[in-house]
Amino acid sequence: MSLETLLTQLGLQRHDPNRLESQLQAMRRDVQRLSHLIDSQTGHWSDQAQNLGQMAAYHSSEIAHAAGRQALRGAEMVRRDPLPAIALFGTALLLARLLKKG
User: What is the 3-state secondary structure (H, E, C) of the chain?
Assistant: First the structure.
């Protein structure tokens, strides 16, 4: 009986880095470490993407609210005095026709 056989029977195998089993175990450990690293980075990226999405939604809401206020203010101005709006519209039509013919 060899020393390696005796150690194997006792559950105390020697670590021989040249054995295929040792190399496979080392590769498994490396793959597990990489997997954990990738999982942690993916979680970090997911959190960052979620934060960016929330910020974009918040700012989009603010911009939409401001645009709505401006539209209401413009509609109120046209309701009070429609002449400037009619003049602006007429000027835009005239300019469009002149540019179309040229």
Answer: CCHHHHHHHHCCCCCCCCCHHHHHHHHHHHHHHHHHHHHHHHHHHHHHHHHHHHHHHHHHHHHHHHHHHHHHHHHHHHHHCCHHHHHHHHHHHHHHHHHHHC
